[in-house]
Amino acid sequence: MQYENCFKICKGRVKSKVRLKKSFGQHLLIAPGILQRIVEFAEIRPGEVVVEIGPGTGNLTRYLLKTQLKKLYLIELDREMVELLCKKIKDPRVELICADAKSFDFSSLSEKRLKLIGNLPYNVAGLIIENTVNFKDLIPEAYYMVQKEVAERLKSTTSWLGTFVNTFYTVDYLMTIPPRFFLPPPRVYSALLVLRRRMEPALDIEPESYKKFLTRLYAQKRKMLKRKIKEEVLIKAGISPNKRVEELYTEDFIKLFRYYSVLFEE
Asked: What is the model's pTM?
């Protein structure tokens, strides 16, 4: 496995308190009402397998365990948090994994369907969401708390990541959470998003090659498309050569990606 052996971590001295680390972007959600609302939004059904990313001190975990989920995987990178969770969480449905969600191989869990949920660290939220898309075949739904500004960008095609996510998932904004509900309070508002996998044919697109296509297309995005793509390709796709990347819709990107294996001028 690519993650640390949690049994070895938990065999040692278990700490009753941990310090929050700025480098991990840790802001713990502490409001019971908000925690309960998140679980209600997730609509966890009996027998579902859930993955919580960044459980921290287990605040959301306790509410998740009140549902009839079949299995709960906790993915936590901070070893001190893992030690604390070992002490606090005794439910047999829980499996604790010390790993980095940015690069975690969700197929290693040997599950056919996963529902992801988590208060994502602000500094790596985009990378975790990108990795979620990489395992789209296993993850039909994900409920993530991120910075409000990031949430708003993910609903649009103003960035390559927004287009990348919207190609494979619909993105819905569920609620806004003020800073006062976190410890320590962040300087920004947060938002809860849900990603629901799209069932359109776009799902047969290979994410890694599509990401490379998008990042290159979004480079110098103020340039007109005809400066980046041969005009005959754009015309064949029904897209004006004078448009800029930020004027395109998700469906336009999908058409362009599928027309040719090489779209850019050398």
From this structure: 0.89
